[in-house]
Design goal:
This protein has 269 residues and is α+β, with helices and mostly antiparallel strands. The protein contains seven helices and twelve strands. The chain has a five-stranded antiparallel sheet with strand order 1-10-4-12-2, with helices on one face. About 17% of the residues have low confidence.
Amino acid sequence: MEILEGTSELQSRLSSLSFSSFPGITSNQCDTSPLESLQNTDLSKSHPQTDNQADMDGIKEDSGQRSEGNEEAPAEPAPGEGGEENNSTGSCQLSTEMKTQMPPLKPPTTWTSATLKELKAKLRSEPDSVVTVYRGDIMTVHVPTVPEAKKVSWEFATDGYDIGFGIYFDWTPVTNRSITVHVSESSDDEDEEEEMEGPVSNGDVEKGSKTQTNSNLAEILPVYRQDSHLSVFGGSHDFPGEGTYLLKFDNSYSLWRNKTLYYRVYYSA
């Protein structure tokens, strides 16, 4: 009974208390509900940034700047790599310019004749007009242009078998006005052309001669096998300018047979 009386007395005293009994608490603080007070609270103000957090942010910024500074720059080409391409391009352009400076060559005038016996009989009496082109050999007759003539002419025939024949023109300035003959084996002739005229691609006498790529040498008549043992083959060509004609008699395709060649080359106005 005493415990119950003490409890009731405590409750009556608590109920008689008012806000005026606690000066630190005002009624304005209780105007809003606890939920509204939480919504209106600015956490950034109520919880200032600590020193440790500031240090961490500074470390992150420093590491970001270092990573940006360590980015690799694009690799530059080695000094020799780009130069080779430029040099090859320049040489191709120079070769093209030299080719464009050369005037186009007109095709030759050609003919055939049945006067085999007459031509052979006539040429037998002339020195150096009857020669033997041995198997595997190529005979080249160098005929330079001369101021007193306007064109070059040729005639030839063979005994028993055919022979390859073609004409080229070398635009190199003439230093010797004499007609000269050069005889070589097929491999020797190709090596000489590579040194004098640049790269060449081997051809077939049955289908046509080599294609010359050097800018100083032009093809007038491809090398083809001609039935010069059946009829006389002749022709002429007007001078395109100063240079040297190369008349090729080609027996490189023959493995066993030598060819007896009757030929003459002369100028005309």
